[in-house]
Structures are given as structure tokens and as C-alpha cells.
Design brief:
The protein has a single domain, classed as Farnesyl Diphosphate Synthase, CATH 1.10.600.10. The protein is about 70% helix and about 0% strand. The chain contains 16 helices and 2 strands. Strands 1-2 form a two-stranded antiparallel sheet. Strand 1 and strand 2 form a beta hairpin. InterPro entries: Isoprenoid_synthase_dom_sf, Polyprenyl_synt, Polyprenyl_synt_CS, Prenyl_diphosphate_synthase. Its cofactor is Mg(2+).
């Protein structure tokens, strides 16, 4: 298959998964209560839907769904796991945008949640999305085997918590208060937590659902780590080079706030070289899965992280 054909197939699959995840999220975030729920407050639910539906590339659920698909596992289970992961991602964006954190007014081309609603509602909507994500992951519809569901819940907790995304955000905020330049080693550690952990979980969760062998799982984890790192370096570069209209959020804020980025630590050209190297490393890691051409779409996902414009 040619590179153009790979790219076309990738875009078609990315769109298809995004659409399926959108439908899944819409159903999960419906007004109807679940057993042991008393009611779903309309304003809180509206804020959750505002921050979750109708936007984003859905790259994280795409990676989860496509990794599971490598092993012939498709349908409701991976989509629910992917939707839960997207809830975690969206909750993190809601909280990151708050005045106490990054203090942003724009997300995905429209007002951030605390601007569209209010700060208290934004905080609660993030809390509810985080909690609901574990509810969905632990549900029998996600996988009939309780051992598999427990493995997903454990991996998701590790990726999103103290030693993962939340810890990475704490390091990022601490970095802004420093006056000295940030080392590349610090930036890579922070980014592997704040951004990389959920991208890595997406691949790990797909491997868990798919029943990957230990060697296949190791190769996929290598892929996920390299892809996550490439994704964040690409974000740093976009912030430095792009504009607010293209990004759908404020551009050029990193440099003015002493943000810990590889662009600041290495320079723009070296950061681009690092991004491209990581994308190649991710694609090359897939050969160790022994799954051959089936991994082409994941290899294309690595290239997408480099070429995307937002």
C-alpha cells in the first residue's frame, strides 16, 4: 500500500472512530439516570456535554480502538473504554483552563467551560467526568471479564493520577514559578506524565482488551511512549509557530510564562528534529509486534502527530 493510501485509510478510520465515540459519549451523557443515581442535575450535565461533545480529534480513543482492533477486538467494549478515556482528557482540559491553572478563555475555538458557565460548575463538571470515566471502564459492557476490567481501571488510575497526568500538571505549574531555564531532562519527564501518560494508556488499554502477548504489549508500550513524546513536542512547536485561529486556543503563551517546553530547552530546530525522531521511533517499534501490515494505521498515527496543524 502506498503512503497516500495509508494516509487516506488513516483519515477515514480517524473520522469513523471519532464519530462512533461521539455517539457513545452522547448516549453516556444522556439525562437518563443509572441504577443508584438519584438525578442528573441539568446544568452540570450540560457543562459536561459542552466540554466533551462536538470537538477534538479523538486521537486517544482512536489509538485505543485501533490497538484493540489489531487483535480482532471491536465494537461496544473498546468504544466505551475509548469514551471513558476521552472523558478523562476532557476533564483535564476543563481544569487546566481554570484561572488557578492556565487561565485560558478559549478552547477548541469557543469559550472555555468556566467562561461558558462559571468556575464552580466547570470544576464540578471536571470532577464528574473523571469519576464517570471509571464507572464506564468498570462496567460489564466494557468487557465481560472482571479481571480485564480491573486491569483497565488500574492502568487508567495510574495514567491519570499522582504519578501520571495530574502529577505532570503539578510539575508544569511549578516550572512556571522558576526563573532558571528548564533542562530537556525535566521537560521530557514532565511531558511524559502530563501528556504522554494518557496516550500511552490508550495503547496499553487496547492491548489489554485485545489480549496481546507480553512481547506484543512491550512493543506497543514502546510505540505509545514515543508517540506520546512526539505529540507533546509537536504541541510545543505549534504554540511557537501557529496562530490562535488555527489552534482554536491561545497561541504563543508558552514563551511568555516560562513554560517547560522542548522549544525553550533545545531551540526550535532541535525540537523539530526531536519530534521527527520520536515519530520514526514510534513507527519502528511496531515491527516488534509481529503483526505486519496490520500496524500500518498506527504507524500513520505517529506521522499524523508530526504533520497536524492543531
Amino acid at each position: 500500500m502506498s503512503a497516500d493510501a495509508d494516509q487516506t485509510d488513516f483519515q477515514a478510520r480517524l473520522t469513523a472512530v471519532a464519530d462512533a465515540v461521539e455517539v457513545t459519549l452522547d448516549r453516556l451523557l444522556a439525562p437518563d439516570t443509572l441504577p443508584n443515581e438519584v438525578t442528573r442535575p441539568p446544568r452540570l450535565l450540560e457543562a459536561m456535554r459542552y466540554s466533551t461533545l462536538g470537538g477534538g480529534k479523538r486521537l486517544r480513543p482512536f489509538l485505543l480502538v485501533e490497538t484493540a482492533r489489531l487483535f480482532g477486538v471491536e465494537g461496544v467494549g473498546p468504544l466505551r473504554a475509548g469514551a471513558a478515556l476521552e472523558m478523562i482528557h476532557c476533564y483535564s482540559l476543563v481544569h487546566d483552563d481554570l484561572p488557578a491553572m492556565d487561565d485560558d478563555d478559549l478552547r477548541r475555538g469557543r469559550p472555555t467551560a468556566h467562561k461558558a458557565f462559571d468556575e464552580a460548575t466547570a470544576i464540578l463538571s471536571g470532577d464528574a467526568l473523571l469519576t464517570y470515566a471509571f464507572d464506564v471502564t468498570a462496567g460489564e459492557q466494557t468487557h465481560p471479564d472482571p479481571g480485564v476490567r480491573a486491569a483497565l481501571v488500574l492502568a487508567l488510575a495510574r495514567a491519570s493520577g499522582l504519578g501520571g497526568m495530574a502529577g505532570g500538571q503539578a510539575l508544569d505549574l511549578e516550572a512556571e514559578r522558576r526563573t532558571e531555564p528548564h533542562t530537556a531532562a525535566f521537560v521530557l519527564q514532565m511531558q511524559s506524565m502530563k501528556t504522554g501518560a494518557l496516550l500511552l494508556y490508550a495503547v496499553e488499554a487496547g492491548a489489554i482488551l485485545g489480549g496481546a502477548s507480553p512481547s506484543q504489549r512491550e512493543a506497543l508500550m514502546h510505540y505509545g511512549m514515543a508517540l506520546g513524546a512526539a505529540f507533546q513536542v509537536a504541541d510545543d512547536i505549534l504554540d511557537a509557530e501557529s496562530d490562535t485561529e488555527t489552534l482554536g486556543k491561545a497561541a504563543g503563551k508558552d514563551a511568555g510564562r516560562n513554560k517547560a517546553t522542548l522549544v525553550a530547552a533545545l531551540g526550535l530546530d532541535a525540537a523539530k528534529a526531536r519530534r521527527d525522531l520520536l515519530a520514526r521511533e514510534a513507527a519502528e517499534a511496531l515491527t516488534a509486534t509481529g503483526l505486519g501490515a496490520r500496524t500500518a494505521i498506527l504507524a500513520e498515527a505517529a506521522r499524523f502527530t508530526v504533520d497536524r496543524k492543531s
